[in-house]
């Protein structure tokens, strides 16, 4: 028996620094509406989808930084998106910068949420693999200051029952790390949603630039196959404030095959009818974890952070 969910990968074109939340939310609602017209149950938006990708700028004034963060979710500016979800009967994943207070301490996370068709938040994730650096680095054409503006996520990788399946989330750089998916795979994940902002140029390793599209799909396709899960990868695309973001949003089946993709560099929706049951044969044969994993030999993965040559 199949368990079908129709998914939209809602890629966004560039967001200017001067764009208001209201302007961006209008674009998100237009994509959500398009999703409803195409029969989507849920659409996936990118990482930090409410603002420009602000970690490209070095800022010392915390008040200036905090302008890019959401103090509540939904807030006044984002409530219309939640209302639209309820009106159209389409859920969504969205990434945003979260400013919250925990035990009297102000915290900053790079966060995503999963919202159901009634506009209720049913899942949350805080980005764990924060790339980049914490101080201004002169040599870079643009900065990547996620390590300055965000704390490491504190939730692990929870999975949630939603839309008839088991859904997990991760954010951008997380998608390059096999541990991300295996943590969810071990909880039986059936669909991983991942929003991203990936510049084509990587200042520390410009020799990788020509491979950025290939690496983007390589990591998500292999993870889908190795964990018998759908992966929905959704980008911010195009030249944003002088920085080219790769785009390349895709819907990947548990076979590792791309079944739908965005082809442009602007706001665009790619839709696929996804059967959660498709992961079953992978999870029960070649990647039957219970039968074939050998965790007693995997100790170094959690014991050691960096590679150390001991021979
Ligand atoms: N937003 C990101 O996490 N971007 C990284 C870049 C810096 C390499 C990525 O993995 O795509």
TrEMBL record:
Q: Which GO terms describe its molecular function?
A: hydrolase activity, acting on carbon-nitrogen (but not peptide) bonds, in linear amides
- Domain CN hydrolase stretches: 5-276
Question: Is Transferase among this UniProt entry's keywords?
Answer: no
Q: Which CDD domains match?
A: DCase (cd07569)
| UniProtKB keywords | Hydrolase
InterPro entries recorded for this chain? Aliph_Amidase/BUP, C-N_Hydrolase, C-N_Hydrolase_sf
Name of the protein this chain belongs to: N-carbamoyl-D-amino-acid hydrolase
Q: Which organism is it from?
A: Aureimonas fodinaquatilis
């Amino acid at each position: 028996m199949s368990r079908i969910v129709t998914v939209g990968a809602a890629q966004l074109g560039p967001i200017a620094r001067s764009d208001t939340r209201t302007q961006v939310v209008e674009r998100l609602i237009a994509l959500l509406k398009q999703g409803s017209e195409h029969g989507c149950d849920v659409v996936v938006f990118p990482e930090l989808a409410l603002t420009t990708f602000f970690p490209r700028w070095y800022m010392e004034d915390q008040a200036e930084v905090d302008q890019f963060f959401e103090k509540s979710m939904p807030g006044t500016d984002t409530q219309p998106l939640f209302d639209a979800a309820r009106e159209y009967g389409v859920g969504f994943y969205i990434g945003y910068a979260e400013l919250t207070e925990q035990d009297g301490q102000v915290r900053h996370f790079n966060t995503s949420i999963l919202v159901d068709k009634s506009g209720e938040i049913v899942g949350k994730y805080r980005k764990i693999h924060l790339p980049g650096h914490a101080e201004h680095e002169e040599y870079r054409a643009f900065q990547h200051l996620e390590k300055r503006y965000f704390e490491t996520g504190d939730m692990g990788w929870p999975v949630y029952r939603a839309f008839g399946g088991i859904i997990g989330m991760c954010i951008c750089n997380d998608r390059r790390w096999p541990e991300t998916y295996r943590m969810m795979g071990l909880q039986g994940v059936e669909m991983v949603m991942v929003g991203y902002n990936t510049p084509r140029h990587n200042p520390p390793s410009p020799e990788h630039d020509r491979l950025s599209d290939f690496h983007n799909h390589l990591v998500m396709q292999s993870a889908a196959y190795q964990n018998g899960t759908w992966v929905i990868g959704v980008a911010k695309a195009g030249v944003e404030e002088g920085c080219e973001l790769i785009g390349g949003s895709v819907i990947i089946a548990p076979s590792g095959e791309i079944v739908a993709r965005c082809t442009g560099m602007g706001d665009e929706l790619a839709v696929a009818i996804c059967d959660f049951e498709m992961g079953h044969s992978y999870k029960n044969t070649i990647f039957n974890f219970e039968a074939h994993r050998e965790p007693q030999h995997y100790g170094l993965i959690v014991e050691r952070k960096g590679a150390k040559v001991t021979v």
